[in-house]
Specification:
Elements (H helix, E strand, L loop, with lengths): L1 H8 L9 H8 L2 E6 L4 E3 L7 E7 L1 E6 L7 E7 L3 E2 L13 E4 L3 E7 H10 L1 H30 L10
Antiparallel strand pairs: 1-8, 2-7, 3-6, 3-8, 4-5, 4-7
Helix pairs in contact: 1-2, 3-4
């Protein structure tokens, strides 16, 4: 299990998390890979996993019937994939597919939620990392929708 701890501790998303937390997280983790073109998750499916991308490229997509998928964000080495595991109803909101072959650390979401519930420090450390990324993705989705519907961009100083 030491090797999975090393994979986790070397990932930029978890930089600065203490060794005890890494060890807890490692108990919920495994190494996985996805071939180019393979879907990693689908909107509407149970959000049972989240991934730390170690190598490769994945696209976070939003699909609408009769239209090509809209890429919300392109994820690469050092990024993570999946936030819907954090809050009920634990349902994936986007599709994601490997654009290039992806190697990742896969976390079992139920296992990790249990560890966060038992160790609130771990939960807080993860939330400090996830919330800014969620805000970034929300902004990207908003910009995409403005492009689709021809809305003018918001004023720079508006919040």
């Amino acid at each position: 299990m030491k090797w999975i701890e090393e994979l986790i501790s070397d990932h930029p998303f978890l930089e600065g998390i203490d060794a005890a937390s890494i060890k807890l997280m490692a108990g919920c983790a495994r190494n996985v890979s996805f071939d180019a073109g393979r879907y990693i998750m689908h909107a509407g499916d149970a959000a049972d996993h989240f991934y730390l991308i170690r190598r490769g490229v994945a696209a976070l997509e939003c699909c609408s019937p009769g239209h090509d998928p809209i890429i919300i964000e392109t994820l690469r080495e050092g990024d993570f994939l999946g936030v819907s595991w954090l809050a009920p109803p634990y349902i994936s909101q986007f599709d994601s597919r490997a654009v290039e072959s992806v190697q990742a650390v896969d976390f079992d979401a139920a296992c990790l939620r249990g560890k966060c519930e038992a160790d609130h420090n771990l939960g807080y450390e993860l939330m400090k990392r996830f919330v800014p990324a969620i805000m970034k993705r929300l902004h990207a989705a908003r910009v995409q929708s403005m492009d689709i519907y021809g809305c003018p961009p918001p004023a720079e100083d508006a919040d």
